[in-house]
Every structure is written in structure tokens, then in C-alpha cells.
């Protein structure tokens, strides 16, 4: 069997032939294909190699060859496991046409880099500290290690995170704001850090136009004679009650986990101020002792104190004026000047 060793010797590329019928090795200089027309060899070894005009200077010469050992430069298409490689090659788009492409290494720093992004590649495929935990980094610039990271934390949890924690995830037209569609075939679980809060509940909130200053926990009502504009409640048993201002702060005891709408975009498009109003779920609400202590299960209505709810007791006035159902007790022992906050379940009725 014939074996051929291709090696570099100074400025000369040589082939070492080993012939089964000859007892000695013969060294020859290759100046053209051998054997004719394209060469057919069992073994081909090289410290470094170039295929094609890799530096695109219009010539095939030593300037095309890598200067560092262990490298292969190819100008064109690499076909693996293909019967007939594509004869038409776009020199501006080098492709690798393979049936299977595997990259494996015991080195914890081994990675695949795609595209430049200053000091970091635009896309990086890596593993964490040789632990086998895979992740994909996306970078737009060189300010941080990554701008977004997909990481498989264990066998079933795929996390999307940013360098400082969370990151926006848009599904749909990437040029539109906000995303148009999110489809989940299954359940959605939401949670957030509790911080120093002694209790933490979550609600669903939607942006609505508001008038005047409001704070999380305020009860709001429709402005009389105005369409879709809310303001802080100020009278008892108000049947124009619409909901409770939700909190966007994760350190608060009550946080909206589904925020429907974009306040900034709404302000730009309508010229009106918008705030998140709880439309479902548990929420922290301002309450007072105007109509006595509140017990779990009591229906809450607006009071005469702006933005505060009270226990409803007048059944004739309560129809259409209920904003929520109390889930906690509120009495003189846990109030400050007769006011405070409790967790309630939104229940407009």
C-alpha cells in the first residue's frame, strides 16, 4: 500500500512516499499534481496548509499558507460526505457543507465564535467551567461580557438572562415595540425577589390613562364625564370604582408580574399619562377604619379618604361599588392614624 507524507521543508513542500514494494523511502518535490490528473493518496499530513487563494490576491503562492502550525486555510467550500461538491462558489460567502458537524474538547475554554462585536464575538457557544453546562452568549458591543445569555441550568430549565439580571425577550417582529405575540403551549410560572418584604403577592395589571398623582395601593375611579380616564377615589361607595394602582417594584409586598402595555409608548401615542391598574389577582390596597375594623372576607368599597378603601356595610350602596375582598384583618392595632395597607383579592362587583 502506498502512503504519502506531506511536509514543509523551508520554502519547499515535499511528499514522502512509502511503497510496499520498495524497502526504502523516496523524497520528491511536488510541482504539479501527482499522480495525474488530481492525485490519489492514502495519507496526507501537513503542519499547516492552504487550499485556494486564501488571501484573495489573485495568486497561489506561499503567502496563502498559514504562518502558525496546526492551521488550515480554505478559500471556498468544504464539502464533507458529499458526492459532488457545489462547483459554484461565492468567494464572499465561505460555507461548510456537512452531514454532521461536531465540535468537542476537554478544554473548558473551548467555544464557537460567530461574527465580531468589538472585543467579544457577536455569538459565542460555550460551556461553564468545564462543567458540561452549555450556554449561548449574544453581544452587541464590548461594554460587558454579554448582553444576553441562554443557559441550560439543569436537565429541564433554560434561562434567559442579562449581565445584570433580567433581559427583555421579544417574540414577533424584532423591529416593533412591544412584541405582538407570545404563545405558550403549557403553563406559565412567574415569580420575583421578595427583598425585605414580609409577604409577597402578585397580580396582573394593565395600563390605563390616569389624571393627577397616584401611588401603588391607591383606589381609582372613572373621572365623571370623561372616557377611560381614572383618578384617585375621594368619596364613599363610589360606583365608578375601577381598580387599584399596582406596584412595579419587586421589593414591594405586592408586585405586578404580568404588565400589559407600555406606559412610555402610550404617553407618546396619546399624550396622556398612564399607570398600571390591577385587573386580576391579589394586590396590596390602601384601607382605613372609616367604617370600622376590616376582617378577612369583608367586601371593600371606596371611602371619603382619597385613594383609600373601607369595609362595606350598606348593602343598598354596595352594588357596583365593591373593589375587592379583604384577605387580611385590619384594625387599630396595625394602623397608623387609622390608615394602612392589606392584601385583598380584586373583585369588582
Q: What can you tell me about this protein's structure?
A:
This protein is mainly beta and 349 residues long. Among the domains are: 112-161, no CATH class; 201-346, Virus Head Decoration Protein, Chain: A (Beta Barrel), CATH 2.40.300. Helices cover 3% and strands 34% of the residues. It is built from two helices and 22 strands. The protein has helices at 263-270, 315-318, and strands at 3-9, 12-18, 26-29, 49-51, 72-74, 78-79, 96-97, 112-117, 120-127, 134-138, 148-152, 158-161, 201-209, 219-222, 230-232, 241-244, 254-260, 274-288, 299-302, 309-311, 322-326, 339-346. The strands form six sheets. A seven-stranded mixed β-sheet has the order 17-13-18-22-21-19-20. It has a five-stranded antiparallel β-sheet with strand order 8-9-10-11-12, with no helix packed on it. A hairpin with a 2-residue loop joins strand 1 and strand 2. The chain is elongated. Residues 1-23 have low confidence and may be disordered.
Produce the secondary structure layout.
Elements: E1 3-9, E2 12-18, E3 26-29, E4 49-51, E5 72-74, E6 78-79, E7 96-97, E8 112-117, E9 120-127, E10 134-138, E11 148-152, E12 158-161, E13 201-209, E14 219-222, E15 230-232, E16 241-244, E17 254-260, H1 263-270, E18 274-288, E19 299-302, E20 309-311, H2 315-318, E21 322-326, E22 339-346
Parallel strand pairs: 4-5, 6-7, 13-17
Antiparallel strand pairs: 1-2, 2-3, 8-9, 9-10, 10-11, 11-12, 13-18, 14-15, 14-16, 18-22, 19-20, 19-21, 21-22
Brief account:
The chain has 349 residues and is mainly beta.
Amino acid at each position: 500500500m502506498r502512503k504519502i507524507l506531506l511536509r514543509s521543508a523551508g520554502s519547499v513542500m515535499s511528499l514522502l512516499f512509502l511503497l510496499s514494494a520498495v524497502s526504502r523511502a523516496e523524497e520528491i518535490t511536488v510541482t504539479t499534481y501527482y499522480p495525474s490528473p488530481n492525485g490519489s493518496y492514502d495519507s496526507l499530513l501537513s503542519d499547516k496548509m492552504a487550499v485556494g487563494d486564501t488571501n484573495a490576491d489573485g495568486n497561489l503562492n506561499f503567502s496563502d499558507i498559514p504562518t502558525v502550525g496546526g492551521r488550515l486555510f480554505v478559500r471556498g467550500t468544504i464539502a464533507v460526505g458529499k458526492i459532488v461538491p457545489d462547483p459554484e462558489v461565492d468567494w464572499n460567502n465561505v460555507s461548510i457543507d456537512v452531514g454532521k458537524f461536531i465540535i468537542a474538547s476537554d478544554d473548558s475554554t473551548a467555544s464557537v465564535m460567530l461574527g465580531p462585536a468589538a472585543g467579544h464575538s457577536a455569538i459565542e457557544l460555550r460551556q461553564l467551567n468545564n462543567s458540561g453546562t452549555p450556554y449561548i452568549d449574544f453581544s452587541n458591543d464590548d461594554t460587558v461580557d454579554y448582553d444576553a445569555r441562554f443557559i441550560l441550568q439543569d436537565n429541564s430549565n433554560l434561562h434567559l438572562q442579562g449581565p445584570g439580571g433580567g433581559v427583555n425577550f421579544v417574540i414577533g417582529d424584532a423591529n416593533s415595540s412591544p412584541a405582538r405575540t407570545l404563545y405558550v403551549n403549557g403553563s406559565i410560572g412567574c415569580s420575583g425577589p421578595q427583598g425585605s418584604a414580609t409577604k409577597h403577592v402578585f397580580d396582573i395589571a394593565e395600563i390605563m390613562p390616569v389624571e393627577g398623582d397616584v401611588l401603588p395601593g391607591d383606589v381609582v375611579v372613572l373621572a365623571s364625564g370623561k372616557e377611560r380616564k381614572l383618578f384617585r377615589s375621594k368619596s364613599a361607595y363610589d360606583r365608578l370604582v375601577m381598580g387599584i394602582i399596582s406596584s412595579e417594584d419587586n421589593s414591594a409586598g405586592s408586585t405586578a408580574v404580568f404588565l400589559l402595555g407600555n406606559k412610555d409608548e402610550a404617553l407618546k401615542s396619546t399624550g396622556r399619562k398612564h399607570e398600571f391598574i390591577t385587573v386580576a389577582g391579589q394586590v396590596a390596597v390602601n384601607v382605613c377604619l372609616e367604617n370600622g375594623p376590616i376582617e378577612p372576607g369583608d367586601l371593600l368599597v371606596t371611602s371619603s379618604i382619597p385613594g383609600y378603601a373601607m369595609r362595606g356595610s350598606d348593602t343598598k350602596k354596595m352594588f357596583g361599588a365593591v373593589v375587592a375582598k379583604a384577605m387580611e384583618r385590619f384594625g387599630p392595632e396595625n394602623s397608623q392614624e387609622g390608615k394602612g395597607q392589606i392584601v385583598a383579592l380584586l373583585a369588582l362587583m
